From TrEMBL:
Record protein name field: Uncharacterized protein
Any one Gene Ontology BP term: isoleucyl-tRNA aminoacylation
Molecular function in Gene Ontology: aminoacyl-tRNA deacylase activity; ATP binding; isoleucine-tRNA ligase activity
GO CC list: cytosol
UniProt organism field: marine sediment metagenome
Signal peptide from the UniProt entry: none
InterPro entries according to UniProt: Ile-tRNA_ligase, Val/Leu/Ile-tRNA-synth_edit
Length: 491
């Protein structure tokens, strides 16, 4: 029950003499009376934090997403946060004690004396005087006609401070004297980084096509992006990286260069002058849209990848495939190791739990250790599922998701329930089922390790088959043999 959040809970709280506790502030964040975990966090941020905390301490029985009708603000389309707040009600037309006037009449008198910005426009009264103060100094005012006024002022790094706009109508009524903050935010240089391949090969062929996954970001907009290619530290080519045009149209509030780019840039080594070269280096360069008058544009450089040139090296694609296969196998082996370590605890725990009436500190320690292994195995499985989704091993991604959801994750939840279950028999049943799910998970990962060897061999054979077909195509079309390196299938 949350008496401070929702009508039904509020009345139930009143009926049961509960405190109307409302730890959520007007801005939607938790105040200092809330647990440290969520203090200062919005209610939406706190949802995930609380769920994860319950998961970590083994108290989360289940977690799923449901679709249901929920009140939303009709203007912003955002969910409404229910808060119990103190309110007061008055009769505005009842004469007050003392002055011969009602509260409504007194309020209207205040309105006539203190009209806000919107009030001037709403009453269709022309502004006879307008003043904009920047840090106490008036800005230049332009009045092309009786109904229009505008201000001009240069914005510099010294403009930080306060500003206030005062509008006055023909009756001498003026807008509220409210000051606002001017914050100067410096334009930072763009950032660029190479995100793939995860494990770059040390050597490449002079005829290779080398694709690089990259990310570029800037706070105000990316003006240009390039792939810099150097041979033995000698710059030989700059390859332009397409930057999408900004969105436009009636629905676009602000037009300008995009601030984030996630794409792939490719260096075709066969088209470069590599004569006598021993190594080739690749680097991403990004420029922002800061005007030259302000010292721009600013530059951002990624790390530099350097490859040794070797005509005898396996193709770039083949090496990347091998490196990826190795990473996947290592991840599977780590999952298997965590499960085996967990099994060494779950087996004895299952056998002893039938005769355990009270959970001792030693037993609780074993439960925590088992759960730690299961959490590690589940995280590894989910990460591997994400990493292989949409790649060459879709079956592996599906298997990892199923492993995490139906076996490892289930065993983790069951293990957590052992600590909060008082009855002896249900505790023993939880331990038995958790041990069974661990056995199933071990069997699945063991089979996947064997299957993966077959999958990788098939993937490598597919690459080799593609290369053989390319050579056959060149030879059967009687093309000069020295044009073999121009075949995209061989890169």
């Amino acid at each position: 029950i949350a008496p401070g959040h929702g009508t039904d809970d509020y009345y139930v709280g009143l009926e049961n003499n509960l405190n109307i506790y409302c730890p959520v502030q007007a801005d939607g964040t938790f105040d200092d009376t809330a647990p440290r975990l969520v203090r200062g966090k919005s209610v939406w941020e706190a949802n995930d934090l609380i769920t994860e905390h319950l998961k970590q301490i083994g108290s989360l029985l289940a977690s799923e997403t449901i679709t249901h009708s929920y009140p939303h603000d009709w203007r912003s389309k955002t969910p409404v946060i229910f808060r119990a707040t103190e309110q007061w009600f008055i009769s505005v037309d009842r004469p007050l004690a003392g002055p011969d006037a009602s509260l409504r009449e007194m309020a209207m008198d205040v309105c006539r004396r203190d009209i806000d910005d919107g009030g001037v426009n709403a009453n269709s009264d022309y502004v006879t005087k307008a003043e904009l103060l920047i840090n106490g100094k008036p800005a230049q005012l332009d009045r092309p006609d009786d109904v229009t006024c505008s201000f001009r002022l240069p914005l510099t790094s010294e403009s930080a401070g306060r500003w206030r706009l005062t509008l006055t109508d023909r009756y001498g009524h003026h807008s509220k004297l409210i000051e606002h903050t001017i914050e100067v935010i410096p334009d930072t240089p763009p950032t660029a980084r190479i995100t793939g391949p995860a494990v770059p090969p040390e050597k490449v062929r002079p005829t290779d096509k080398v694709p690089l996954a990259l990310e570029i970001s800037d706070d105000f907009g990316i003006a240009r992006a390039e792939l810099l290619v150097s041979v033995d530290d000698r710059k030989v080519q700059t390859i332009a990286i397409p930057v999408p045009a900004p969105a436009s149209g009636p629905a676009t509030r602000r037009a300008g260069p995009i601030g984030y780019l996630n794409t792939i840039a490719t260096a075709e080594l066969a088209s470069l002058d590599l004569a006598g070269g021993r190594s080739v280096s690749l680097q991403i360069r990004a420029l922002d849209n800061l005007p030259a008058s302000l010292g721009g544009p600013q530059e951002g450089l990624s790390e530099r990848l350097t490859f040794e040139l070797d005509v005898k090296a396996p193709t770039y694609v083949f090496q990347v495939q091998l490196a990826m296969d190795l990473q996947i196998r290592e991840a599977l082996e780590r999952i298997y190791a965590e499960l085996i370590s967990g099994k060494k605890i779950s087996g004895p725990l299952r056998r002893s739990m039938k005769a355990t009436k009270t959970l001792t500190e030693t037993t609780l320690g074993k439960v925590d250790a088992l759960r730690a292994h299961l959490v590690a195995a589940e995280d590894l499985a989910r990460n591997l599922a994400d990493a292989t989704a949409g790649g060459q091993y879709p079956k592996l991604s599906e298997a990892m998701t199923k492993l995490a959801d139906k076996h490892v994750g289930k065993a983790r939840e069951l293990t957590g329930l052992i600590k909060i279950t008082d009855a002896q028999k249900p505790r023993a049943e939880l331990a038995d089922e958790a041990d069974f799910q661990i056995d199933r998970a071990i069997a699945i990962v063991s089979k996947l390790l064997k299957d993966f060897d077959v999958w990788t061999e098939q993937a490598r054979m597919a690459v080799m088959h593609k290369m053989v077909l390319a050579i056959w195509r060149v030879l059967t079309t009687r093309e000069p043999f020295d044009r073999l390196h121009n075949c995209p299938e061989l890169r």
